[in-house]
Design brief:
By secondary structure, the protein is α+β, with helices and mostly antiparallel strands. The chain is built from six helices and six strands, in the order E-H-E-H-E-E-H-H-E-H-E-H. The chain has a four-stranded antiparallel β-sheet with strand order 1-3-4-2. The chain has a two-stranded parallel ribbon with strand order 5-6. Helix 5 links the parallel strand 5 and strand 6. Helix 1 packs across helix 2. The chain is elongated, with a radius of gyration of 18 Å.
Length: 205
C-alpha cells in the first residue's frame, strides 16, 4: 500500500488522446464509474477502497499515473463541499498495476462538515430569501450570492483552508481559489451550474 500526493483542487482536466475509439470509450466508461464511486465514498468520509483495475494503470507509466490522479482531482474540483479531502490518496497494487485507491481526509472532517453546511445555508438564505427564490432569475441569484460573499469574505491567506470553500464560507477569509469554490458551491445549491477554471500563467482561479 502506497500514498500518492497531488495538488488539492488543481482544476486539471485530462483529455484522452491518441487512443483507438473503442478503447477510449471503455476507458471513459470506467472513469465515469470510478468518479461516481469516489464521490460516494468521499461524501461519506469513508475509508473504503475504490477498484480501478479497469483503467489498467501501471506504476511505471507516468501518463497513466497522471490520468488516475486527474480522475481523483476532477471529483474534488467539481464538488467544493469536499474541502475535507486531503491532497493525496492511498493505493494498493499487485506487481506493477494499481488495483484500488482510497481517499485521505483531514482529521477534523466530521466536526467541520456540519459547520460548513450550516453556514453556507445561512449565506444562501440571506442572499436569496425562500419567499423570493421562485421569482428570481438565475442572473439575479448569481449576483446576490456574489455580493454577499464579496461583502463578508476578506481576501487573506490563512492556512490551507484559504484555498478551499471552507475558508470563505466558515472563516470568512480566503484567496481567489477558495472564493471561487465557495461561490460555485453556493450557485450549485440554487440550481445554477458552474465550474472552476484555473490559470497557471496568472496563478489565479
Amino acid at each position: 500500500m502506497q500514498e500518492v500526493q497531488r495538488m488539492y483542487q488543481s482544476g486539471d482536466n485530462f483529455v484522452i488522446q491518441d487512443i483507438p475509439a473503442p478503447t477510449k470509450r471503455l476507458v471513459e466508461t470506467a472513469a465515469d464509474r470510478i468518479k461516481a464511486e469516489l464521490l460516494m465514498v468521499m461524501k461519506e468520509v469513508s475509508n473504503t477502497f475504490v477498484n480501478v483495475c479497469d483503467l489498467n494503470i501501471h506504476l511505471d507509466n507516468t501518463d497513466e499515473m497522471q490520468y488516475l490522479s486527474n480522475i481523483y482531482a476532477s471529483v474534488v474540483n467539481s464538488n467544493p463541499n469536499l474541502f475535507y479531502v486531503r491532497n493525496g490518496y492511498t493505493y494498493s497494487h499487485s506487481s506493477n498495476q494499481i488495483n484500488s485507491i482510497r481517499p485521505m481526509y483531514i482529521e477534523n472532517a466530521h466536526t467541520m462538515i456540519p459547520k460548513y453546511e450550516e453556514e453556507i445555508q445561512r449565506i444562501i438564505d440571506v442572499a436569496i430569501s425562500p419567499s423570493s427564490n421562485m421569482n428570481m432569475r438565475d442572473v439575479e441569484k448569481a449576483l446576490a450570492l456574489h455580493d454577499i460573499l464579496a461583502l463578508q469574505v476578506q481576501y487573506k491567506h490563512v492556512g490551507n483552508f484559504s484555498f478551499t470553500a471552507y475558508g470563505p464560507i466558515v472563516n470568512k477569509q480566503g484567496v481567489c481559489q477558495g472564493y471561487s469554490l465557495a461561490y460555485i458551491d453556493c450557485l450549485k445549491r440554487v440550481g445554477i451550474n458552474a465550474m472552476y477554471v484555473p490559470s497557471r500563467v496568472m496563478n489565479h482561479g
